[in-house]
Design a protein that fits this description.
By secondary structure, the chain is mainly alpha-helical. It has one domain: Ferritin, CATH 1.20.1260. Helix content is about 70%, strand content about 0%. It contains eight helices and no strands. The longest helix is centred in the C-terminal third of the chain and has 28 residues. The radius of gyration is 17 Å and the shape is globular. The termini are far apart.
Length: about 210
């Protein structure tokens, strides 16, 4: 890389993630546009809930409280935008089961703090980074309204990834600890993204 080229937020995310989203998943998403939007709404709601749960649990960390408060507000704003699109398209917001992705990553979290918090924050970084990568991959294939919307999400989602990563580094005992945990989580993340899945979801592996 030349010294003149500074990585864009999306390039930094692509470098952080262990693999690209498989082309088959993109095909799955385009074959299931209704389900994609329903589960996208779910993801925004869950992201806000994750931020709120961190605020409730770690009341002594002012940097975390500030960043997670802002993140929760932005995720709920995205939720409102997704359900607005669904309403205009006459898509009912119905219950769908969660994908294995977030649970599969959270199973790696250690049991006691501060180690647990480091892992939860790093897992948050991976989830946000993957969302961002998928918005970027999907956008060119979507209709004009959705393409514009998904491209508009890239900036905030990439900042959320950075917020989680920075917080993890401030909580961790060393840079070495962060790097080891990132490597471990990345390995699982790659398995979950690349291995075949049974049901299409926003964070699923490829189906069929």
């Amino acid at each position: 890389m030349t010294e003149h080229h500074q990585m864009s937020p999306l390039e930094a995310i692509q470098a952080f993630l262990p693999c690209r989203t498989p082309d088959r998943w993109i095909e799955n998403a385009l074959e299931n546009p209704t389900l994609m939007l329903i589960d996208h709404a779910n993801c925004e709601k869950k992201a806000a809930n994750t931020a709120l749960s961190l605020i409730n649990r770690y009341t002594d960390n002012f940097e975390l409280l500030n960043k997670m408060s802002r993140l929760a507000r932005e995720e709920m704003r995205h939720f409102e935008q997704v359900i607005g699109i669904m309403k205009r398209r006459n898509i009912a917001y119905k219950h769908v089961t969660a994908s294995r992705y977030a649970t599969g990553l959270r199973d790696l979290a250690r049991n006691s703090d501060p180690e647990k918090l480091v892992d939860v924050l790093l897992i948050g970084a991976f989830i946000e980074a993957r969302s961002c990568e998928r918005f970027a991959r999907l956008a060119p294939h979507l209709d004009a309204e959705l393409e514009k919307f998904y491209n508009s999400l890239l900036k905030s989602e990439s900042r959320h990834y950075q917020d989680y990563l920075k917080l993890a580094k401030t909580v961790a005992s060393s840079t070495d600890e962060v790097e080891k945990r990132i490597a471990l989580i990345a390995q699982r993340e790659r398995e979950l993204i690349e291995s075949p899945d049974t049901e299409f979801r926003f964070h699923s592996g490829p189906v069929g």
